[in-house]
Design goal:
The protein has helices at 4-26, 85-94, 107-115, 124-130, 145-149, 152-155, 175-196, 207-218; strands spanning 36-41, 44-50, 67-69, 74-76, 100-104, 136-137, 160-163, 167-172. It is an alpha+beta fold and 231 residues long.
């Protein structure tokens, strides 16, 4: 179990995961028990706190949040981890700079995922939250390791990607940044879909402006690449 200080840190991270689950509910980024959230434990980089499978977010308690190694072994918790366990553990194992993952089925993002569209860099807030436009990863069945593999190109130098016929995956150095990426992407996707109802030629920010704004997003990685190394 580690030292008492380790135990306190684990409980804090579990509580933080629950808090962000409830924020996802409050912003209507998830419905029912859909979606999942995880965070790397400070000081224990090979250990992840993640949401359990099929439990309502409003009833979650810290002891319900499993602690899982990046190899997929459950070491603590009274509940089984999310069915998207391979997606979470593989991203963490391959990208040591990632501190948190948020997966949603929010309406506008999921609409983009159905069509396989890219969300262009149309808003400064979007670029500031995810580093540029948001791409769609090819389809793979939920709950498989292949799903993590197929996010590789779509997540390269980005804080979010759409999962074809599924939803949205957002990452960050911490839960605050991963949640922001998911929330801002949903709002920008809504704007984009509204704009497409009026015209097909949607104005975008210029490349130089995108690069300037994205530099702030990249700063969270502390000099690391922020790219996904595929298997």
């Amino acid at each position: 179990m580690g030292s008492p200080r380790d135990v306190e840190g684990r409980q804090r991270t579990r509580a933080e995961v629950i808090a962000y689950c409830r924020r996802l509910q409050a912003e209507h980024l998830v419905q029912g028990t859909a979606g999942n959230v995880s965070a790397r434990l400070p000081g224990e980089p090979c250990l992840i706190a993640m949401t359990p499978t099929a439990l309502p977010y409003e009833s979650l308690e810290p002891e319900d949040i499993p602690l899982v190694t990046t190899a997929g072994e459950v070491v603590e918790g009274r509940c089984e981890p999310t069915s998207e366990l391979p997606l979470h553990t593989l991203v963490y194992a391959r990208r040591p700079e990632v501190g948190a993952i948020v997966h949603t089925h929010s309406p506008a993002a999921t609409t983009m995922a159905v069509f396989g569209w890219t969300l262009p860099p149309i808003l400064t807030g979007l670029v500031g939250a995810v580093g540029g436009g948001v791409r769609t990863a090819p389809y793979s069945r939920p709950g498989t390791a292949e799903l993590a593999d197929r996010t590789a190109a779509a997540l390269a130098d980005r804080g979010a990607c759409f999962l074809r016929h599924h939803g949205l995956l957002a990452i960050g150095a911490d839960l605050a940044r991963a949640f922001l990426a998911a929330s801002i992407t949903e709002g920008a996707a809504r704007v984009y879909l509204d704009a497409r109802a009026i015209a097909t030629d949607i104005p975008e920010l210029g490349p130089d402006e995108v690069e300037e704004i994205a530099a702030g997003w990249r700063a969270q990685w502390g000099g690391r690449s922020g790219t996904f190394t595929a298997a």
